[in-house]
Amino acid sequence: MTSQFRSLPSVDRLLAEDAIKELAAIYPRDLIINLVRQTLETERSAIAKSKTPASLDRIVASITNELDRIGSVSLRPVINATGVILHTNLGRAPLSHDAMQAIDSIAGRYCNLEFDVDSGERGWRDTHVESLICRLTGAGAALVVNNNAAAVLLALTVLAKRKEVIVSRGESVEIGGGFRITEVMRQSGARLVEIGATNCTYVNDYEEAITPGTAALLRVHSSNFRVVGFTHSVALDELVALGDKNNLPVIDNLGSGCFLDTTVFGLDPEPLVTRSIAAGAKLVCFSGDKLVGGPQAGIIVGSQELIARLKKHPLDRALRLDKIRLAGMAATLIHYLKGEALEKVPIWMMISTGIEQIDRRARKWAEALGGMARVVDGESMVGGGSLPGGTLPTRLVAIGGGGKKSRYRVHVLAQRLRQHDPPVVGRINEDVLLLDPRTVLPDEDKAVIDALRRLTA
Ligand SMILES: *Cc1c(COP(=O)(O)O)cnc(C)c1O
Q1: Quick check: CB of 287 below 6 Å from ligand 1?
Q2: Closest residue by CA, ligand 1 atom 2
Q3: Which of 157, 307, 330, 379 is the most buried (most CB within 10 A)?
């Protein structure tokens, strides 16, 4: 072992290697020396564990690879062939062309973020989206924050700190990624009063729970699950009537929030923001990057009086949006105002794509795989904690299936697709690798076909 330790190259020996000298022209010397030392350290512990020491070439390669990794942004495009339209792990909504342009035009420059060009005086960042949101939703005022979790946190903090908020047991949900209504309530300092039973809550349940300490009635859209069978929940109008009678605001956490009718596409009805406002909810919270199809954000709409209170709270400053996301959000909202969302907002283009078009693309993909693949019926999912019953009929490219050996092979093929540049991500169901063209942007077809051809090579 001692001789193996001794056989390791010295730091100076490695620094004299051509490949490393080349990198020294790009990266600071300290960084390179650090990496060289780290790599040698890793080698020493490998030898201590009786592993065969790496060759000089291997050590040099591992140093140059690591430097390449450090010097490149790890966030990169991925092709989503999973068929899940709002895939949280893959970044939820891809932005429209106009949204990207709006971002591009201001990202590398100064802009009028908080500056009124006409008067030359200070302006407010929310003005760039507030009137658009109000026009779309019929609300009196609007505010945007970091995400919908932040929107709920801000609303509860301002309205209900050290007070009680009534919520139905059936709506006290966990959205995923650790977002539990109860936990957010606790952070806000509000006390959660859960009422009713998991499957049934009636308006009396709310009424009986109201005390002098009650600050609000909260409704939560049960985004990602559904209670079926014997169920009852209270309609928003009924809840608002009860709230009005007791001078209590209703906060409606819609989760996804939606501006378009989803039933047109054979999907379950996703509650519309306009309807919550029309029903009289005083604050309505929803995400910017679910069915709105914009950048990550939380949108709060509601009464001018309550929104003004939210804007004045110090937490609003901590949760606010930057210029890049405001630009992308404004451009996204304009698509809805112009009535062109189905043609311009990528997630709506995906939702509204006809099955014939998907079938045509699936066949092209399958051709690239020769006899390895077949085209089958399947379902795409809306995802993102919206529309629990939200699936759309689709056509899938299916690879593999049948037998233990095939299971291994399918996982290897999936891995090879992920190793392609850009990575192609599919889904595996019962040992079959499935690829759904619905969630692949049309200009990515060439890359998918290229990745598939390589599988057969
Ligand atoms: C998705 C969702 C959230 C969280 O929204 P983010 O924008 O991801 O923070 C909160 N509540 C409900 C009901 C949701 O569906």
Answers
A1: yes
A2: 255
A3: 307
DSSP three-state, residue 377: strand
Task: Flag whether the pTM goes above 0.85.
Answer: yes
Dihedral pair phi/psi, residue 74, rounded to 5°: -80, -20
Asked whether 220 lines ligand 1 (CB < 6 A), one says yes
| d(C-alpha 61, C-alpha 69), whole Å | 12
Per-residue three-class SS string for 206-234:
HHHHCCCCEEEEEEECCCCCCCCCCCECC
* Beta carbon of 175 within 6 Å of any ligand 1 atom: yes
pLDDT on residue 6: 85
Residue 418 CA to residue 433 CA, distance in Å, equals 12
Residue nearest to ligand 1 atom 6, measured at CA = 148
Helix (H, G, I), strand (E, B) or coil at 178: coil
Token pair 């404004």 in the structure block, residue: 330
What pLDDT does 371 receive? 82
| 340 and 363 co-located in one domain | no
CATH number assigned to the domain comprising residue 407: 3.90.1150.110
Residues of the chain with pLDDT under 50: none
Is residue 176 located within the same domain as residue 270? Answer: yes
Residue 188 in contact with ligand 1 by CB distance below 6 A: no
Contact between 369 and 455 under an 8 Å Cβ cutoff? The reply is yes
